[in-house]
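Worked example 2:
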Amino acid sequence: MAPPVRYCIPSERLCNLEEGSPRSSTYTQHGYIFSSLAGCLTKTSENGVLPVYTSFSCPGDIVLAKVISLGDTQSNYLLSTAENELGLVVAHSESGVQMVPISWCEMQCPKTHTKEFRKVARV
């Protein structure tokens, strides 16, 4: 069974610095790690050290998602990318180049060859 998905919004406190390591799409302040983007939160471990926290998408990305709830009175929407044809469609690397999908969970910059783990839509 897959672990539950946790979504986060910009400026949401994710954990304290003793519990994890910040990466792209996060920032630190007053001893805590905060999200700088909205999206799915992933928690991974590198070489047995503290978990690494990252978000799902970046500003300017195009994500294909399904509305699963219209939310509350604040006009919030709950989106899902849980199907194969849903997920990231267009992304740009830090160097400004459009990335290409290399698997269902990875995008690569053709200029720098850096890879980013993302949930890629099968379109």
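Residues 13 and 34 are 4 Å apart (CA to CA). The chain has two domains: 6-54, 62-117.
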